[in-house]
Amino acid sequence: MSSPIDPTATSAWQKLSDIHSTLSGKSGLLRSWFAEDPQRAERFTVDAADLHVDLSKNLLTNDVRDALIELAREVGLEDRRDAMLRGEKINVTENRAVLHTALRREKGDEVLVDGENVVPGVHEVLDSMSAFATKVRSGEWVGVTGKKIETIINIGIGGSDLGPVMVYEALKPYKQEGLECRFISNIDPTDAATKTAGLNPETTLVIVASKTFTTLETMTNARLVRQWLLSTLKEQGALENASEADAVTKHFVAVSTALDKVAEFGINPDNAFGFWDWVGGRYSVDSAIGLSLMIAFGPERFYEFLSGFRAIDEHFASTPLEQNVPVLMGMLNVWYVNFYKAHSHAVLPYSQYLHRFPAYLQQLTMESNGKGVRFDGTPVTCDTGEIFWGEPGTNGQHAFYQLIHQGTRLIPSDFIAFATPAHPLTDGETDVHALFLSNFFAQTAALAFGKTADEVRAEGTPEEIVPARVFTGDRPTTSIMAQELSPRVLGELIALYEHITFVEGVVWGIDSFDQWGVELGKKLALQIAPAVMGDSAALESQDSSTAALVTWYLSQRR
Ligand code: F6P
Question: Which of 138, 232, 516, 527 has a 20 to 30 A CA-CA distance from 344?
């Protein structure tokens, strides 16, 4: 593996720095750019599959775009992209290929890892997921007392939870009547207790989803739920004619790359759905990790979901960089992070169904690009990573938009909306979705064009409060629209952000596919646990702050 190219040493970086110097300190840029160029919106709007993406309200000119694309070329983005898609081991610190894109390749395609085509294996697993999901949906798969399944509990954390939860919430209108999913992730016992409360174990199917099948939270929750299931079945007299092992076989299935560990837990290996070490946890929602989704929405919808990912993969792989949406969006993020010193990035879906999308993106983007060393172990040469956050509009408008409109920091924001409402309600004569989207359109215009002091004065505002009512504008936004929030479009949106994340990582020269930063805390938690459980020698070996906190906890716990 070659060394990363230092982006700051490229000629494009110098150009961007010069352009940034000429732009900084100027106001009303977007107003004047739109006034000078009536074609601006059209020029900077690009479609990718079903996504209609307007970049024109960004701090973007032809020169900026050209320099960003030049930078992408200078750091070898196309080569790195092709290496990833070919199955090269670009995750160097884990010596792994990075092939979430293989999960959505069509039957008959070829992607080689260590000389072996992985696509047939992908479809074998999809076929067995489909067969299983169909049995559960039709009622052919029954619990230990012969009752059909009504509730699926997915136990997983991180990538084994965030994707399934987000997609389940996003595609609720497609869910089969009479089937419900619940998700247990946190090791806070409240999660398992509240999610199993009121459930009938006879009609509950548990999916233990863990790439490694060793994650503390997931394995603890899996044991807690197994305990709940068996003891409740016993209380109900449901285990009179069946053994505990039968009950586990009928009510527990697993998704993992570690099928040996699945068997150790007592889950029948026939009911285990595999995936591979070349799928990162945060890139795994379209693998068997999506089993709960396939059950809830059906195999057909799941294949539509995969087709959306594939459409964006194809766009990313073959569209010239100048028209390539993930490339343009990723490079714009680099522009804001490295030249405007933006620290965070808001994602604002104008769709209640996407309420978990920002949380999902937090793992995808921040676990991927929150790195301080490059893939060859040398320090990064510029800022990396963005803090992704957001809430659905319009709720966010009444909470934190004040900071985006008038705060001192630049917060690039992605606005996402759909033309067709899932629930076309009217309030008297008023179409409520039209009213909702009026807010979407208004916010990006307000952020871009602001309101000058003269405009504020013209409204008769007393002079002393004029400054407080001025909006500077030039606050960059990208508007992403699609016809409706379908399984396919959701797949497209996820793949879009996967590739944006990749593009940024390539510029910064980092390995976007490892996550060593989560390890230390995990190890320390295991080391501290004996102290928290009352072992005085373990307590004494802690630093004084930690020891005092543990002591206080022990003294207060009831
Ligand atoms: O701790 C981080 C992490 O490894 C994530 O990358 C991953 O998605 C999550 O934990 C869960 O891991 P697993 O699927 O192996 O249980």
Answer: 516
CA of 211 to the centre of ligand 1 (A): 7
167-201: buried (b, 16+ CB within 10 Å) or exposed (e) per residue? Answer: bbbbbeebbeeebebbbbbebeeebbeebbeebeb
pLDDT(1) > 70: no
The residue written with tokens 């024109």 in the block is 56
Same domain, 55 and 123: no
For helices 299-318 and 487-508, the axis angle rounded to 10 degrees is 40
Both 323 and 263 in one domain: the answer is: no
- Considering the domain architecture, whether residues 374 and 251 belong to the same structural domain is answered as no
Q: Which of 367, 386, 498, 504 is catalytic?
A: 367
Write the single-letter amino acid at 156: G
Overall average pLDDT of the 498-516 stretch: 98
Domain CATH for 123: 3.40.50.10490
Task: Describe the crossing of helices 119-138 and 299-318 by its angle, rounded to 10 degrees.
Answer: 150
Residue whose Cα lies nearest atom 1 of ligand 1: it is 518
Region of residue 102 (left: phi > 0; alpha: psi -120 to 50; beta: else): alpha
Percent of the chain at pLDDT exceeding 90:
99
Asked whether residue 548 falls in the same domain as residue 462, the answer is no
Q: What pLDDT is attached to residue 394?
A: 94
> Alpha-carbon distance 275 to 278, whole Å?
8
Percent of the chain with pLDDT over 70: 100
Alpha-carbon gap, residue 538 to 387, rounded angstroms: 36
Q: Is 552 helix (H, G, I), strand (E, B) or coil?
A: helix
Each residue of 396-455: pLDDT tens digit?
A: 999 999 999 999 999 999 999 999 999 999 999 999 999 999 999 999 999 999 999 999
Identify whether the C-beta of residue 483 lies closer than 8 Å to the C-beta of residue 50: yes
57 assigned to active site: no
Residue 352 has pLDDT above 90, yes or no: yes
Has 423 been annotated as catalytic? no
Q: Do 372 and 428 share a domain, yes or no? A: yes
pLDDT tens-digit map of 415-432: 999 999 999 999 999 999
Residues 420 and 313 in one domain: yes
In this predicted structure, what is the pLDDT of residue 360? Answer: 98
Regarding whether 264 and 355 lie in a shared domain, the answer is: no
With tokens 């479009």, the residue in question is 489
Residue 5 lies in a domain: no
* Ligand 1: lining residues by beta carbon, under 6 Å: 157-160, 210-212, 215, 218, 281-282, 367, 515, 518
Q: Can you say whether the dihedral through the CA atoms of 411, 417, 422, 424 is positive or negative?
A: positive
Q: Is residue 287 part of a domain?
A: no
The structure tokens listed for 209 are 């989803």
In a domain, 403, yes or no: yes
Q: Do 128 and 87 share a structural domain?
A: no
Tell whether 280 is covered by a domain. no
Residue 201's domain spans which residues? Answer: 119-275
